[in-house]
Specification:
Layout: H1 19-22, H2 25-31, H3 65-73, H4 79-83, H5 87-96, H6 98-112, H7 115-127, H8 134-148, H9 156-175, H10 182-194, H11 198-208, H12 217-229, H13 233-245, H14 252-264, H15 268-281, H16 287-297, H17 300-303, H18 312-321, E1 334-342, H19 364-381, H20 384-397, E2 402-405, H21 406-410, H22 419-432, E3 440-444, H23 445-450, H24 455-463, E4 467-470, H25 476-487, E5 490-492, H26 500-503, H27 510-517, E6 518-524, E7 527-531, E8 541-542, E9 548-551, E10 564-571
Helix pairs in contact: 2-11, 6-7, 6-8, 7-8, 8-9, 8-10, 10-11, 10-12, 11-12, 12-13, 12-14, 14-15, 19-20, 19-25
């Protein structure tokens, strides 16, 4: 007798796939993993030949939008009565519709991780014959995948429930001719990995492009991490290559998984590659990644890899060509590594091995491109005329040696806006300037207008062309950041630049720029102290002698020195 997996949908789903998807062989391949058995023990086996051939004889110009078009056409009959309703009545009817009420309740279940409640709502609404939208299905699939993958931290019963109902709901979605999107595929990939089938997850994400859906990092995550957990390094590398072809950048969790599986399979070349990819994209690593790297350097496999002789000239040329701080020509040296946690001096000298870290230069062209991108983003988020006016003002009065985030400095260690504190910092920067020029102070217009006690000071700065008051309704972050980037100067602020605004700037250039240009302040009994940017780059560095220095992520407390992993060998002679 054929055994049935209760978590898999029946082959009958093929009879319900939207015509717009059926002609695509890629979508049929996508669904194939789900259809490995029959759910009805008493039904006759279904073969591909039983499927009506006309299902596949469709116009290939049709696409996913055909489903939506068909649904809209069904509403034409009621257009005349709907037009007679007022806008207020339409909005009220929409708010009171079963579909809208279900959306609100499912969103709440998703927010609080209530799978059982969501499934109860789903069963009730289906029994009442209400049609579900893509959003409804995606919320349900997300909750099922969340529990099935263990992210909800719930009991095994809920994991099994999420796994079983997730595939059932997806079958219903296909039967209702609701087109899937990236969120749908991502949830199904998570469900596949929860069933310990990363191959299915990878197959799903590979077919997204064929359906005109661009995969994201979260789409690849289940397959990549699933293969890594199973120790299948080759398949993990295949997923990684597919991500690269799709223009999807890996982040620390994915690189850590690839590093682990490379270590487990003793692929030392891949370990070397992953360390360099961490250097290029992550720069400073979390404690979990640092521990894996430390364990690697202390292992026998690490001791047995490396060149005893190398071309010094070639290494130096590679370091210069890469901008400094790495050469990328493979492991150097032989014998066991000495891997220890340590700190750096203020000048960047390692307290463990005595090597001096380098300051990696930034290409001036990169800075110009970044300034242009920053201006474009600012104009899209701010009133364009206001920001263009600031750019013109900056051209007349700049460049500056430093830009001060006035509000941030005035509020450090103070509940109220402390202009005297800001004045002291401004004066200190003026004394430090080679040209003895005042820095540019950016303050919001509301701060300038309400501070009547210091109006004389503010007016003096304005007349000197060193104070710019950003207009009402603006975000002054855009202004002080753009000024610092375009003037190629220091920016004085304790803003860690981690919110949504700064995330728009990406993780490629901006962290490197911030590291070399941000001046932070610390509060002491005598006032604020300026902490200048370090004279070395806080990034994974590979020296010409083969040593490695890996920085950890530091907290915002400047009094706590950053922890580094120093990995060096005694045998370094080329």
């Amino acid at each position: 007798m054929l055994r049935v997996n209760p978590f898999l949908p029946s082959f009958s789903m093929f009879n319900k796939i939207p015509f717009s998807l059926l002609y695509r062989s890629s979508f049929r391949r996508t669904l194939r993993p789900f259809v490995t058995c029959r759910c009805n023990l008493f039904a006759k086996p279904v073969s591909v030949s039983n499927v009506n051939a006309n299902f596949f004889a469709v116009d290939k110009t049709r696409n996913l939008s055909a489903v939506a078009t068909a649904k809209k056409s069904g509403l034409n009959a009621s257009n005349s009565s709907t037009n007679e309703m007022s806008n207020k009545e339409k909005k009220k009817a929409k708010r009171e519709s079963p579909e809208f009420l279900l959306k609100i309740k499912l969103d709440n279940c998703s927010k609080h991780g209530k799978l059982e409640e969501a499934l109860g709502l789903y069963d009730k609404i289906i029994s009442n014959g209400v049609s579900l939208t893509q959003h409804h299905y995606n919320m349900l699939l997300y909750l099922c995948a969340r529990e099935a993958s263990g992210d909800g931290g719930q009991l095994d019963e809920l994991k099994e429930l999420g796994l079983k109902r997730g595939f059932e709901i997806f079958q219903k979605m296909v039967g209702d001719k609701v087109s899937p999107n990236e969120a749908t595929f991502t949830s199904m990939a998570r469900l596949a990995v929860a069933r310990e089938d990363p191959d299915m997850a990878f197959e799903l994400v590979k077919q997204m492009k064929d359906l005109g859906i661009l995969p994201r990092l979260r789409s690849y995550g289940p397959a990549l991490l699933g293969f890594c957990e199973k120790g299948n390094a080759e398949k993990a590398y295949e997923v990684d290559a597919h991500m690269h072809e799709s223009g999807v950048m890996t982040e620390e969790p994915e690189l850590l998984a690839l590093l682990k599986v490379s270590i487990e399979t003793k692929n030392t070349d891949k370990v070397y590659e992953m360390l360099h990819r961490l250097r290029a994209t992550v720069r400073q690593v979390s404690e979990s990644t640092l521990q894996v790297v430390e364990d690697w350097f202390k292992s026998e496999d690490a001791a047995n890899v490396g060149s005893e002789k190398w071309d010094v000239k070639q290494i130096k040329e590679a370091v210069v060509g890469g901008g400094g701080g790495w050469h990328g020509l493979g492991w150097l040296g032989s014998g066991r590594w000495r891997a220890v946690r340590t700190t750096m001096t203020k000048t960047g000298v390692c307290h463990s091995c005595g090597e001096k870290l380098v300051c990696i230069d930034i290409d001036p062209k990169e800075t110009e491109n970044f300034a242009a991108k920053l201006a474009e983003l600012a104009c899209s988020k701010e009133a364009r005329a206001d920001f263009v006016r600031f750019q013109e003002w900056l051209q007349r009065h700049g460049p500056f040696d430093a830009v001060v985030d006035g509000a941030n400095v005035a509020l450090i260690n103070s509940e109220n806006f402390n202009l005297n504190q800001l004045k002291k910092v401004v004066n200190q920067l003026q004394q430090m300037s080679p040209s003895k020029r005042y820095p540019l102070v950016i303050l919001h217009q509301s701060r300038v207008a309400r501070d009547r006690n210091n109006s004389a000071w503010l007016e003096k700065w304005k007349k000197a062309g060193v104070l710019y008051a950003t207009p009402y309704g603006s975000n002054d972050d855009w202004y002080w950041l753009y000024a610092a980037v375009s003037c190629k100067c220091l920016v004085v602020t304790n803003d860690e630049m981690r919110d949504h605004l700064f995330q728009l700037l990406g993780n490629s250039f901006f962290p490197r720029w911030k590291e070399k240009h941000q001046v932070r302040l610390s509060a002491t009994r005598t006032g604020l102290v300026l902490n200048m940017p370090p004279p070395y780059s806080i990034v994974i560095q590979e020296s010409e002698s083969g040593s490695w220095h890996v920085p950890s992520i530091a907290d915002d407390d400047l009094s706590n020195p950053r922890q580094w992993l120093c990995a060096s060998r005694s045998k370094k002679t080329p």
